[in-house]
Amino acid sequence: MREKPSYSTSLKKFLCLAVALGITSSFAAGQVQALATWIGSWDYVLRHDQDGKPQAAFARLRGDNEALLWLTCSRMPVGEDLPEVVSMTAAVSQKSYLGPSAPRGRSTIYWFDDGSPELSYWVYRGRVGRLANSEQVSLFLKKLSGARSLVIELSNYRYETQRSEFQLNAADTKAVAERFRQDCRDIAGRVSADQSLIH
Predict the structure, then answer these.
(1) Which residue in 111, 72, 69 sits closest to 92, CA to CA?
(2) Using CB atoms within 10 A as the burial measure, which of 20, 83, 137, 194 is most buried?
(3) Which pLDDT tens digit goes with each residue over 1-40?
(4) Which residues in 45-67 are b (16+ Cβ under 10 Å) and which e?
(5) Reduced to 3 DSSP states, what percent helix, strand and coil does the chain have, rounded to the nearest 5?
(6) pTM metric for this prediction
(7) What is d(CA 129, CA 137) in angstroms, rounded to the nearest whole number?
(8) Are 32 and 26 a contacting pair, CB within 8 Å?
(9) Order of strands, edge to edge, in the sheet holding 85-93?
(10) What percent of the chain has pLDDT over 90?
(11) How many helices (H) and strands (E) does the chain have?
């Protein structure tokens, strides 16, 4: 694992994609303070608020055909006089337009290694499909930690399959998962959230 300085160019790329994942409100105020880290094949960014407290963590892995796998955890304000909330997601972005889904999401199939396909509902917007239920994200992360490959079949607005494949280095992925869980616990701790989901 090697630390790299926080350059504004690379941070803008990370933050632009974070906006596409629907977490723009966490960046609404204040100057961005973030540190980019490379953990093997993964890119990792931890963002801090103006007080230097962890506010958002992003892990990104490149797949085939320009696909990107994202893990995000952030705390953000809901509105005036309301406490902040923590959002944890797993998402895949790819080059084909997927279109929006209903609020419940669109059925999506994925599998790790040679295991059985799993079905869950992912929320779609533009070119991104995301798993936004914290319990499902924790389970996804647990399975990801020990896997060598991930195949996910997003579907576009015509329900045509858009397949993305990711090759995983077990040691890199385990290190990313451990770092992400710890950072997410720290982020959740700032709002006294239920940390039992982040295991």
Answers:
(1) 69
(2) 137
(3) 444 444 333 433 443 444 344 433 333 333 446 566 778 8
(4) bbbebeeeebbbbbbbbebeeeb
(5) 30, 40, 35
(6) 0.77
(7) 13
(8) no
(9) 2-3, 33-39, 42-48, 54-62, 68-76, 85-93, 128-131, 118-125, 106-112, 149-155, 161-167
(10) 59
(11) 3, 11
Please, which residues have CB within 8 angstroms of residue 170's CB and are 6 or more apart in sequence?
146, 147, 148
* Nearest CA among 72, 67, 75 for reference residue 137: 72
Query: Nearest 5°: phi and psi at 185?
Result: -60, -40
**At which residue do the structure tokens 């994942």 appear?**
21
Q: What is each CA distance from 107 to 68, 96, 199, in whole angstroms?
A: 19, 17, 25
Written as six digits, the tokens of 167 are 């090759």
**Please, what is the Cα angle at 162 between 171 and 117, to 5 degrees?**
60
The pLDDT score that the predictor gives to residue 134 is: 87
